[in-house]
Amino acid sequence: MHQYLEIILMLFIFSVFATIEYVILRKRISGVNERKYSFYIFSFFFSSYYFILSAMKYYLGYKKENLFDSFWDLQPITLVHYGIPLLIISIIAPFLLQCIFKDISCKIIRFFDSTMFLVLSFTWLLVRAVNNRAYCVAFIIAILISAFAIFYLKKNEISFVFEKDTRQKIAKALPFIIFWLISVAIYIPNELYLNNASDFPMSYWYFFGMLLLGSLISVIILCIGMVVYLTEKQLNIFCVLMFVLLIVGYIQGMLLNGSMGVLDGSQQAWNFSQYAINIGIWIILAAAIIIFSIWKKEKAYKIMRIVCVWLTLTQIVSLGVMIISSDDTAPKSESLLTTDGLLEVGEHNNIIVFVLDRFDGRRMDEILEPDPNFLEPLQDFTYYENAESEFSPTENSIPYLITGATYNKDSTEKYISYAYDNNPLITDMNNNGYDIGIYTNSRYVPEEFKDIVSNYKDGIQRTCNMWDLVSLMTQCSRYRMAPFVAKEYYQYDTSDIELLVTNEKITNIENDIPFYNKLINEGLKVNETTNSNGTFRFIHMHGAHAPYTMTEQFQYIEYDNRRDDGWGSNGVSQAKGALKIVYEYIRQLKELGKYDDSTIIITADHGYTESLSDSDGNMIDISFPILFVKENNQHNNGTLNINKAPVCHENVIATIRNIIGVDTKNATLDDISENDEKVRTLKICSNDLFEEYEINGDVRDINNWKLLYSNGKYAGSIIKE
């Protein structure tokens, strides 16, 4: 947050300096006192300096961040580096304006301000985020329009909205603004919530209130800006363009979308003819409205206002009916896994398991190839390069790592239900007096276990940032209203909605930055009040899973191609960042003197999760997780031990059971040597898919993999064909 204040202050100071200089110059050279226009002159310089900094950051690679997020690592010297060019420009720019444009310079400034506001308003209405790229494009468009208007400005005066009949002009625009408010900001998001309430973590009335408040504030700011900046002609253009976008978007959402797939992150598919017909309809309708508004101006505006009012009232009534008839408006007070005890360790017998989601062994190879020393903080660990997970994806992998329950193919239950009903690992820990803290999504741990999991709490309500909510919900609306050719740009999925939650009490596996900040700001501590025989901490992190929104420097970035599961550079950076968080935890554990007698396991719930075989059953890919283990009082003389033993998560569970003193029929990690020949299996269970693969030998060699069977029917039970 500090970078917001410091950057704004820097822009403010230089804008004020340039404004004062310009007013003084105009007075001395032309004898004209422009003090009454100081606000507009200030706006011109402020937006210009903002553009200069945004362009510099864009050039440096910060295209998808806004200016303030670009300065995420802001230092005092950074302000000096950027302030010097702004100071020089502040001195030169007023002279250039006066010399080049002379008497009409102030008129050009005012026209630019109005044009910039108009362009920036539609930029905000249309783009996912006004980042550096979007702002620079908006500024350049405003400059070009202003340049083409210079000849007109020399000969004509321009009439601004605030100069006369202001109330009538705003009243003229209100139906269009309210139509946007109800359609885009209120109706579609509320309909989305009421039809998919289980996907929204917050209570309905909290959601509705925050959305309404944020949208109203946005509308008020928009109206004030229209009064302060726009010319009368620009107000007319604003109304017509707003109507075109809203009415054609409304028709798209109601009639043209057809049947769309579930928004699970997969790209929607339309063929070329669908694209062509759809965009053709948009062009025809938009052109017809614009031509009619020019040809029959007064009549067109009257019809457009009537349509806006009618559709607004229709949607309000429809929303009211939906709310009254819905069963999903009750407050959501849940039993959830919280962050309580996340940074607490015990006096002795600590078992700490880090699960870095989707961290494949090949991702680790990518990290180590250019930086062989990256694993230096794990010098007392053993790196099992030939490890395999029991399950993929997360929905079964996490329950397995918590319970260790062997999968029963004949069970009529889903694995998660079966697993917790069959003597799970955490029950053994509880029986042996361990304090248990599990930090993952609550859906992976049944509520019945809240009595033995110390961070399972009742009555937790989810909250979110108002502006993030408005931004995402209007994006959802634009997705529905956009033509097919633009829908991918507005695409979203349920993980985006989950990321809205800002309640720091709730465990967050979608973003590792809050965990890092909590670790740095609060630090690890020893819980000296517990009477437990040991402490178990299971920490599930976002790790190497897409979307890639964190860098290794713990900077949050917006990743537009977040549905892309490829092995891109952002994925490497995020994976390194996740491991660095673990490194920091270990460093603090050493400072507390609790490192030596702690067992620390760093693994992934699974590796790569795309299809591993083709339709004929031939192997096309492999999947295996990272696995690093340091048992209590283990030392490797300052080196990382590399072990190629054929191990799997079953052996990890056996190792933990052995440490807590519970008999296990399975081999521990220490029981398996590199020369052992052990056949392992990987089970992929998701929705209606069940596949089982056999690995006989090195997990990294695709020739050692074989598809055992794939029945394609996993819906509560497995039916083998």
What can you tell me about this protein's structure?
Helices cover 50% and strands 11% of the residues. The protein is α/β, with parallel strands linked by helices and 721 residues long. It folds into three domains: 1-155, no CATH class; 159-332 and 464-487, no CATH class; 349-462 and 501-673, 3-Layer(aba) Sandwich (Alkaline Phosphatase, subunit A), CATH 3.40.720. It has a seven-stranded mixed sheet, sandwiched between helices.
Strand-pairing-aware structural class = alpha/beta
Report the top-level CATH class of the largest domain. Answer: Alpha Beta
- Compute the separation of the termini in Å: 58 Å
Biggest sheet: strands, sense, closure? 7 strands, mixed
Give the second-level CATH assignment, the architecture of the largest domain: 3-Layer(aba) Sandwich
Low-confidence stretches: 560-568, 713-721
Strand arrangement across the biggest beta sheet:
7-10-3-11-12-4-13
Helical segment count? 22
Tell how many strands the DSSP assignment holds: 17
Keywords for this structure?
721 residues; alpha/beta
Sum this structure up briefly:
50% of the residues lie in helices and 11% in strands.
Secondary structure layout:
Layout: H1 2-30, H2 38-59, H3 67-70, H4 76-101, H5 105-126, H6 132-148, H7 150-155, H8 166-195, H9 204-229, H10 232-256, H11 272-295, H12 297-325, E1 334-337, E2 344-345, E3 350-356, H13 361-368, E4 382-384, E5 387-388, E6 391-392, H14 394-403, H15 415-420, H16 425-431, E7 434-439, E8 456-460, H17 466-481, H18 484-487, H19 494-498, H20 513-522, E9 525-526, E10 534-541, H21 569-591, E11 598-603, E12 627-630, E13 641-643, E14 647-648, H22 649-659, E15 679-686, E16 689-696, E17 705-710
